Amino acid sequence: MSIGNIRRRASAHVPTRRHTLCAVRRPVSLPSIDEIRGRLAEQGITHVGVASADVLADTRAELFRRRGEGLHGDMGFTYRDPERSTDPRRAVVGARSVIVAAKPYLTDSDPPEPQDGSGPHARVGRYAWVDHYAPLRAALRDVSRQIRRADHRAVAFADDNSIVDRAVAHRAGLGWYGKNANLLLPGAGSWFVLGSIITTAPYDPTPGPAADGCGSCVRCIDECPTGAIIAPGVIDANRCLSWVLQKPGSIPFEYRTAIGDRIYGCDDCQDACPISVRLGRRNSIELDPGSDAWVDAIELLDADDDWIDNRYGHWYIADRDFRWVRRNALVVIGNIGDPVDARVRRVVDHYRAHIDPILAEHATWAATRLTERAAGATVS
Ligand code: B12
Ligand code: SF4
Ligand code: SF4
Q: How far is the CA of 95 from the centre of ligand 3 (A)?
């Protein structure tokens, strides 16, 4: 019998939570924003602000504009229903405030690429080395429950399509929009994930927005490998490698070489940012021993769906179709695999004969790239 079953049987002999609440329910006072800050700080959340729950009109217009111009690259997410994702009251009827939280994810050290003869190793974006959203959501849900006990509605969101996270964080004064589109926190940079609690409770908004800190710097624009930052703060998702690696279907040829060793996520426009690099470690976290910063591309290509799901299930994988992760691994192998390594050749040859035409085509591309790299040439 599982532990879960034992717990359920034992609890059948004690009053249910509902009975207990009915018997002892007393009014509970609303937690103050300082109490909330303290409670969230215990869970590693370093920055908290409050925004009004009014419609995010500028962001709504921007979502429609970018979608109209095709800059969303067929993304759904917040682009699917901009009216909904820019109106906190569509998420929580009668909402009056949005409590916004930022949790740092830059680690105090970076795990080096394994040098044990395995690999080739594909690189994972820092925000995805472990699941940072799950603990953020759990902490916000804990506070939401506390607010609900004071007879208010409160719902936690993080990286959910219900609300544009950066926009509420910007309104709450947590940071400014960098030219790389990320929200930069003053004195701390952009290595933060964001989440919020939309509530009917009337918390006072914190002053915002924060003053721009980019000045004349344009490093992120210059360093983006695909020119995806088409104007300050505006990303063309069609070109952004972070989306190229998530998007279902065939990867356009013009981006395959630029993908380099990336399998999921892209950090270049943050690694290029002097503010985030210089100040990010003020809020750094301990490296989780379970971090997956490097993915053994051959191990992944030899694995079945369950294995990939168990290991990398916290990534966004379109339609939970693990083909897209394998497709990315094939591109990485073409870009960085050792052309004379028999393991590399075996896996590429295996996928060239794959029943799935997209995987077979990416493997053929990888084989050509390996051959041309061996000859010292470049393929597009
Ligand atoms: C869709 C999405 C993506 C897309 C598109 C990103 C984009 N910039 O458009 C893709 C898949 C490419 C992506 C990539 C990444 N993402 Co993302 N993504 C989202 C998601 C789901 C929605 C974002 C959204 O709706 N954008 C709508 C557009 C209109 O808003 P915006 O991009 O923020 O643009 C603002 C600025 O352009 C500003 N603006 C307008 N005019 C001007 C003019 C100037 C001069 C300036 C400076 C700004 C400015 O106004 C806009 C909003 O009003 C959010 C989660 C959520 N629910 O909000 C996460 C989110 C934005 N992503 C996040 C992260 C971590 C990333 C990556 C770093 C991951 C990675 N390492 O690969 C990259 C960064 C890429 C980048 N440079 O933006 C974090 C960002 C945290 C932060 N500190 O900013 C979020 C908030 C998730 C979270 N909850 O933590 N993402
Ligand atoms: S995430 Fe990478 S590809 Fe996307 S804008 Fe930043 S540097 Fe460019
Ligand atoms: S690299 Fe420069 S322009 Fe880009 S976000 Fe950082 S400070 Fe701003």
A: 34
